[in-house]
Amino acid sequence: MDIEQNGVGILPVKSHGRALPPVFCRELGVDWRGQRDRLGEAVRSWLASSPSMHTRIGYSGDLRQFLRFQEIEAGHWEKLIGLLPSHVSGWRDSLVDAGYSQASIRRKVIAVRSLFTYLQTFGYAGANPAHGKFVKTPAPARDGKTIALSPHDCRMLLDAADTSTPIGIRDRAILATLAYSACRVGELVRLRVGDYRRQAEHHVLNILGKGGKERVVPLHLEAVERLREWKEVAGIADEHAGPLFRSVCSSRGHGRDGFLHSHITVRAVEYLVARYVRRLGLPSGVSVHSLRVTALTTARHRGADIIDLQDFAGHADPRTTLAYIRSQERLSKSPTYVLRY
């Protein structure tokens, strides 16, 4: 297809006296304003397609960054159809030069790839300039940067909260849920009382994960006991639709004056984990995500199958799960320790 570029966008041109259809709209006679409107509608629909607000915010930010690099003004969606693989790879290389991590670069390029895949479903007739055949993304790191705790340090963290206060009982339940279910912090804060239930001989959590995918995770007996104690002290056992974990009414009351009828926030969970990490003198890099990594790493080292771990973690790809498995055991078996000179 012959195309020409003007100051506004890509326009269909005539070939042998016949008007060619635009790349996006297959209908004849659609001008650049029509393409802008259709593409804008498609982009908004793409952003709204994910049920996760976190994903929508992340994709929106990645798209804005990509458009700024391509010098595409806000709302000039028709210029998307002029992008080539070289434009995407140039952006990827600029991210490398700017010092972004491989994981961040991979996520950002995949976001753009996802957009064009969605546009094709929406009616876009061109190629996907961010397709993996055109633009390679960094391979997932074998070992991520999040610190995994040793079983000994994890035990210390699980027992760090003061059980003489309601907030300490809540914190113990939160830490046990994170350590024994490997749930993400965003999944934890969305849990309702009714998501914790009995299924046959198991106590399970119904966890709503990324992309609106649900999974059922059995709970260790220690987590079961801590959750029972928390529900009892908070008086929420019968509030099936209410939030499972809640913020205190006042910080000075330590929960003795009750808890708010609203979900605890991600920031609050991150803060309470950081507080216990500092108190115990654990490495400063230990975060709430460390408990998820610790659960998957420890289970793998103790014989859990990778496919079972993938289901446990709620990952779509087992390679993602493998990136969570830290290499303490592999490092201990390194040939470097048998060398003698």
Tags for this entry?
341 residues; mainly alpha; hpI Integrase, Chain A; 2 domains; three-stranded antiparallel sheet; two-stranded antiparallel sheet; globular; disordered N terminus
What can you see in these coordinates?
The chain is mostly helical and 341 residues long. The chain folds into 2 domains: 120 residues, no CATH class; 178 residues, hpI Integrase, Chain A. It is built from 13 helices and 9 strands. The strands form 4 sheets. Strands 5-6-7 form a 3-stranded antiparallel β-sheet. Strands 1-2 form a two-stranded antiparallel ribbon. The radius of gyration is 25 Å and the shape is globular. 30% of the residues are buried. The N terminus is likely disordered.
Overall CATH architecture of the largest domain: Orthogonal Bundle
The string of secondary-structure elements, in order, is EEEEHHHHHHHEEEHEEHHHHH
Question: Which regions are unreliable across 5 or more consecutive residues at pLDDT < 50?
Answer: 1-29
Secondary-structure class? mainly alpha
Mean pLDDT, as a whole number? Answer: 84
**Amount of beta strand:** 5-15%
Radius of gyration, in Å, reads 25 Å
Please report the total strand number as a whole number: 9
